[in-house]
Amino acid sequence: MDKNISFKLRYWRQNGPKDKGHFDEREMKDIPGDTSFLEMLDILNEELVSEGKEPFVFDHDCREGICGMCSLYINGTPHGKTASGATTCQLYMRRFKDGDVITVEPWRSAGFPVIKDCMVDRTAFDKIIQAGGYVTVRTGQPQDANAILIPKQDADEAMDCASCIGCGACVAACKNGSAMLFVSSKVSQLALLPQGRPEAARRAKAMIAKMDELGFGNCTNTRACEAVCPKCESISNIARLNREFIKAKLAD
Amino acid sequence: MWLCDSSIGRKVVMSVTGIALILFLTFHASMNLVALFSAEGYNMICEFLGANWYAVAATLGLAALVAIHIIYAFWLTIQNYRARGKDRYDVTDKPAKVEWASQNMLVLGIIVVLGMILHLWNFWYNMMFAELIGDPTLGGLEATNGYGYIVKTFSCPIYTGLYIIWLAAIWFHLTHGFWSAMQTLGWSGKVWFERWRCIGNAYTTILVLMFMAVALYFSFCGGRLCDAACDAPCETVCNTVCNGDCSTCDASCNAACGGCEVSACGACCQ
Amino acid sequence: MTKIIDSKIPEGPVAEKWTNYKAHQKLVNPANKRRLDIIVVGTGLAGASAAASLGEMGFRVFNFCIQDSPRRAHSIAAQGGINAAKNYQNDGDSVYRLFYDTVKGGDYRAREANVYRLAEVSNNIIDQCVAQGVPFAREYGGMLANRSFGGAQVSRTFYAKGQTGQQLLLGAYSALSCQVNAGTVKLYTRYEMMELVIIDGRARGIIARNLVTGKLERFAAHAVVIATGGYGNAYFLSTNAMGCNCSAAMQCYRKGAYFANPAYVQIHPTCIPVHGDKQSKLTLMSESLRNDGRIWVPKKEEDAKKLQAGQIKGSDIPEEDRDYYLERRYPAFGNLVPRDVASRAAKERCDAGFGVNNTGLAVFLDFSESINRLGIDIVRQRYGNLFDMYEEITDVNPGELAKEINGVKYYNPMMIYPAIHYTMGGIWVDYELQTSIKGLFAIGECNFSDHGANRLGASALMQGLADGYFVLPYTIQNYLADQITVPRFSIDLPEFAEAEKKVNDLIDHLMNIKGKKSVDSIHKELGHIMWEYVGMGRTAEGLKTGLAKLKEVRKEFETQLFIPGSKEGVNVELEKALRLNDFITMGELVAYDALNREESCGGHFREEYQTEEGEAKRDDENFFYVACWEYQGSDDKAPVLYKEPLVYEAIKVQTRNYKS
């Protein structure tokens, strides 16, 4: 059913954040269409190692599109052009044609310095969450789960916001290197639920302050983030974050 | 101050100033339309908006809005450029739903500013500025003769071309700017996002068409009227320009008629 | 064997043990908590929840993970849900019933007291998670929704779309983040534990490798908690994430912690079948699909042959020629039998020649009946994301109408096959979750405890969070209460230096083999042997062959391994090699235990021990114990077995029956 394809792979090599970096090129031969993109890179690495060379380094883990670890910028699109907007690991080689040139780059943003090759440092996202992306609740004996009634619609919407996997594709795609979609998804999730309301103002302010401090850019509503988000987070979250933030500041 | 030191605050400033400028444009466009119907009416407005204290104060306010909008634009752009990092992508592929305008607001803004400078030179300099420095005929016509300056400006096809480019840039700038401002102010969501976009596009298009109508009317219709039925319009022109006293108006009438044949115009004035 | 394994189960009836324990355990007062340090390795459900809870109590916590963020831990991939005995559906659920189902599902090889405690705290978990803002699915009235799951006759599974694990992990991660912000937890990401440091017989620290710089660093604490997950990746192909490894557990094992029941490996029945030899990873389709999907193979062997040759498609076979073998064999539970039963039944059909893809190793999971009954919209609402995922991977859309035969609409069926998914075995722990090394605790999948020989669906999340939120934070105090006078340890102690040197030597050794084979190629060989000889159907002979082959793999690893680059900086090949070193040891351990356990129970199936109908045949007389394996100082020596006898007071041990 699936044909094998051959193509030229250009992949980014960079030894640490200060290194200048360059592309390496390689002709990949007879890759089955059922191979996932990351499996194709496994094949590349197997070849490199067998030649005594260092493998191409990239982040990946669950390979089920949920952990958010994989982060490759393929042919000008974060995660590559998958069918339903998924992560790199869910991209299959049948989406490419024989003779294609495939360019693989890391997320490029000041907020995500390169560690090696296409592995980037996304601890900035953790720091933003640590600034306020939670409901402060002690482990112990909160009230019964059904004591808080939440309309299905709100619960579903909060769930959509909570689907964010923190991969950073939004930042990678944004010409401003802005992390607003990421931040707004978390703020929205908790703003939509009654549990999150008491801290809503504090949360929005703290997370935005941290985001700004870490050098992410200002959102100019280009919607590039939304277009590449593997979990289809909507920029309506950003509007909600803006609302929460402005309300909080005006109340001060 | 959160309007300076937070990213959303800075964007709020952009949005509020942007919306204020859109409102000003709405006023301006409505005023321009008067010129299509009545030269006297138009000039009355010009007189009203001359070097009176309230008009000067409004102008200063407007200038402040523009300045803030521009300063913040550059500030945000520099920050965003830095946030992007040193390395650029080798290959980029813009997703279909990303509007071209949204990624080129600064470039569009610069075109708008250049157009604005031209516009100020063509009109404001000759009108309000002329009155302010006490030289009402600085531009060759009476400072309150806005109609005359419209006719004069659009008699030159180069100006018309530049104004059309300018208006196109404004259209692009506003179609994005309108919903973007609502989004930034948080007055948006899944439903309202599409509504604002629709409203914004319609509003901006109407606005730009209003401006465009005046420019095109005076570029093309203005000239043709002089040719085909010179008397009536030129008379109107002359009347407006020199209050019916044809003896003094020769020179200015010719200038005002611009593209008209001098003889035809001269004839009606005499 | 002379050693007595003390599981420290408290006195009293099973329902009162945990209450009694908590009432009488020693506690640490708040002022003293600040002076006690705890290392938690791993940031999955168990690790993150434990680190957050301990930090919140006032202990100083150091938390480690190998990924770039705690949120990447593999708990995130659990799709289906989490069980709790809330009885919100009014279908007769209770703590006892959840306890009973779990013990029965585990084929009577779990420790009663632990399981009861698990069932007891299950309700707190739901309350806790809801309070944290986990967006569980709800009904229109605003109440929490439930779904049913394999191995139970009640609907007790709470879920958040198909991403329950993700949402629960993000809940724990947010609690952890809150504590990091408060300064009680210090987080170390991209750090891998390399060695356990023992001082005077107690776990007092770890050596960890900074995966970015490659440097080894020393960390001291009063207690060490490992929450590093299971060892499924010893099989190379599994549903585990690529980074999942058993190295931390193996380090503890080599230091003397018993490893319990390694043979209990769960094979998940609904994975996407293997497509080729370049495959790196198997993708799990949520077990919840079995709620509305029907599993079948063709009745006629010639149809199977045609399917294998690619001449016909599943939708070409009409209803009357389909063999819904689970419904046929297990009328009471049908497609919802426990995972081990479903997996073996699939293997049995495929071994008999009824496999439905080109490799002959796949069965159909069909939604035609549900779609015809409920309509495509409702089915898509329930499983849409899984359908999309399946389509992306295989290019087949299970929601697409394929054919109409005699007025019956047939939709494209999915193809599924069992794959390694979860490991019930793990580091042996007592009731307090303490290992056989004092001061070393193991929680989550990493310990052996609560699932017995087989884990029911939606129970892993429950156990991870129960351990992390509600059990360990109490029981660890019982240990720490008499440690309050022990000052912080210096990392310059000779024990630390020695442990670091050992790791350094190992790294140098591996780097200097300079053979010809990549880590992955050897890992694949290991995986093939494990799947072939130590997989779903085991025999004494096969296990012996497997053990011999594992020795060869070890030798090959020792002589043929090639790692490019240097030990400084990022070196993923070195990371993988270090993990593979432990996977080989782990593989052998699984084989030893499987060989020893001459019975079939849960995830462990010995072909010699089955009923005439092909069902697992337990031997309660001889194997009613937890097998605890002790390391003998070298990977070349066979481990020694100790037995912790199981004592059942509340439940009568029976033959598992899912037929009626």
Write a structural description:
The complex is a heterotrimer of chains A (252), B (270) and C (660). Chain A has 252 residues and is α+β, with helices and mostly antiparallel strands. Helices cover 35% and strands 14% of the residues of chain A. Chain A contains eight helices and seven strands; from the N terminus they run ββαβββββααααααα. In chain A, the strands form two sheets. Chain A has a five-stranded mixed β-sheet with strand order 2-1-5-3-4. The longest helix of chain A has 16 residues. Chain A is elongated. Chain B has 270 residues and is mainly alpha-helical. With 660 residues, chain C is of the alpha+beta class. Chain C has three domains: 304 residues, 3-Layer(bba) Sandwich (FAD/NAD(P)-binding domain), CATH 3.50.50; 151 residues, Succinate dehydrogenase/fumarate reductase flavoprotein, catalytic domain (Flavocytochrome C3, Chain A, domain 1, Alpha-Beta Complex); 131 residues, Up-down Bundle (Methane Monooxygenase Hydroxylase, Chain G, domain 1), CATH 1.20.58. Chain C contains 18 helices and 21 strands. Classes of the chains: A alpha+beta (252), B mainly alpha (270), C alpha+beta (660). Chains A and B meet through α6, α7 and α8 of A and α2, α4 and α8 of B.
Broad structural category of chain C: alpha+beta
Low-confidence stretches of chain C: none
Largest protein-protein interface? A-C, 84 and 87 residues
Assess the beta-strand content of chain B as a share of residues: under 5%
Molecular shape of chain B: globular
**CATH evolutionary superfamily of the largest domain in chain B:** Fumarate reductase/succinate dehydrogenase, transmembrane subunit
Q: What's the overall average pLDDT of chain B, rounded? A: 85
- CATH class category name of the largest domain in chain B: Mainly Alpha
CATH-assigned homologous superfamily of the largest domain in chain C: FAD/NAD(P)-binding domain
Oligomer: heterotrimer
- The averaged pLDDT of chain C comes out at 94
From the 3D coordinates, which CATH architecture of the largest domain in chain C would you assign? 3-Layer(bba) Sandwich
